[in-house]
Amino acid sequence: MFAKPLGTDAELRPLEPWQAEEFFAHMERGREFIGQHIGFADAAKDLESARKLLQGYADKAAADVGRIFGIWLDDELVGGVLFRVMDIPQGRAEVGCWLEPAATGRGLITRAAKVLIDWAIRERGVHRVEWLVSSANAPSIAVARRLGMSRDGVLRSYSLHRGVRQDVEVWSVLAPEWES
């Protein structure tokens, strides 16, 4: 297993099914905060579903269509980043993220997403990296901006989250923009 430093206070590591208990405990700490805008927290409602979620990403990694990584701060899992979707033949990937409230305001998501985007573009030849975000999720939109992404548009009333329709903004960065 590898660990990629995210400065001096945190590191990025693959998040695997054998870590389901730690992942579930993390989700329990941040469930309501994380679940405000994304369904990820609701998908890990108990230990079995947390393990199933991580196994799903292990299967995606094996098929080269997705990946999931945790962010550890002082050796405690506090969030993560992922390739929700990777389409290497088409040169596209979608990055996503989550973070529990105690870890916000430190730039962890921005640092971790930079590692993923850099790897996707430089190592895997991805041409377009996307960031889909609820229009109501101002912190995530701020990360997209810090990453140098451009707002492509809004998918109006695009997704249903906890019974409420959400507008979803599409942000992206292209390989030539990232490399410059």
TrEMBL record:
Recorded GO CC terms: cytoplasm
Domain N-acetyltransferase: from-to ranges: 10-177
Keywords of this entry: Transferase
Organism superkingdom: Bacteria
Chain ranges passing through the membrane: none
Example of a GO MF term: protein N-terminal-serine acetyltransferase activity
InterPro entries given in the database record: Acyl_CoA_acyltransferase (IPR016181), GNAT_dom (IPR000182), Ribosomal_N-acetyltransferase (IPR051908)
Database matches in Pfam families: Acetyltransf_3
Name listed for the protein in its UniProt record: Protein N-acetyltransferase, RimJ/RimL family
